[in-house]
Structures are given as C-alpha cells and as structure tokens.
Design a protein that fits this description.
This protein is an all-alpha fold and 147 residues long. The protein contains 4 helices and no strands.
C-alpha cells in the first residue's frame, strides 16, 4: 500500500494546476480567438495526462523495471507538458494558421506517445532480463566476501 499512498496529493496538485490554468486564461487579458482556445485545450490535456500518468505510475505492476519505468515515464510526461506549454505560449504566431498549430500539437502528442510506449516496452524487457539473471544466480540475497 506504500506505493499507492501518493495518489491523493498528486491528484490534488493536478486539480489545482488545471484550476489555475483555467483561471489564468479567463482572468488575464487573452484574446478569445480560436488558436488560443485550441492552445488552452491542448494545455489542459497535457496537464491531465501528466498528473494521470504520475498517478498511473503508482499502480505500476511488478512486471516492469520500476526504476527505469518511473524515471523514464516521469521525464517523458514532464517534457510533454513543457513542450505543450511552450507551444501554447507561442500560439499567437499561428493566429492565421490554426491547422498548422493543431498539426504541431498532434505531432508533439505522437512523439511523446512513442517515447512513452518505448519506455514501457524497454522496462518490461529489463525486468525479464533481471529475472533471468536472478535465476542464474539462484538467490537474491546479498553475498558477502566473494563472487
């Protein structure tokens, strides 16, 4: 149960981030044009994916290499959020080219989805190799004074 104990704080932080994003969009003097609304939608999607992914990591099974999985997926999710945030900040440059902005956002999503799926596959293969190595050794207890 220890690994699932951080779900509530992560979800509360996620709710606060989504609320802050919505409040900032509606209280700041941001033009309500289509590209800014699309930027808001993609930014909210990235926040939900970030915090949903962090919560999902708490429930990761034993069939994965937990260190590689958590480090890799966490980094991928944070970089996805940062890339989406940067593109949302520069959304005004795409005022007349909304389709280009949406295509860039979809490319960002596809790129980080491929990275995350690759990390999931590699973490599973690392876990299988670790199990095979442990079977060769015969025990997982630490050995002292020898090989």
């Amino acid at each position: 149960m220890r690994s699932k104990s951080g779900v509530l704080p992560i979800s509360l932080i996620g709710i606060i981030m989504v609320a802050l994003t919505l409040v900032a969009f509606f209280l700041l003097d941001i033009e309500r044009i289509a590209v800014h609304i699309w930027a808001l939608a993609f930014l909210l999607l990235s926040e939900v994916v970030l915090f949903g992914g962090l919560i999902g990591l708490r429930f990761a099974g034993a069939s994965h290499s937990s260190v590689f999985l958590r480090a890799g997926v966490s980094t991928s999710l944070v970089l996805y959020f940062v890339a989406t945030l940067i593109s949302a900040l520069f959304a005004g440059f795409f005022r007349d080219r909304i389709n280009s902005f949406i295509l860039i956002e979809l490319a960002i999503i596809a790129f980080f989805a491929i990275i995350t799926i690759s990390i999931l596959a590699w973490s599973r293969s690392i876990a299988r190799r670790n199990e095979a190595d442990m079977a060769k050794i015969g025990t997982n207890e630490p050995k002292r004074g020898g090989f």
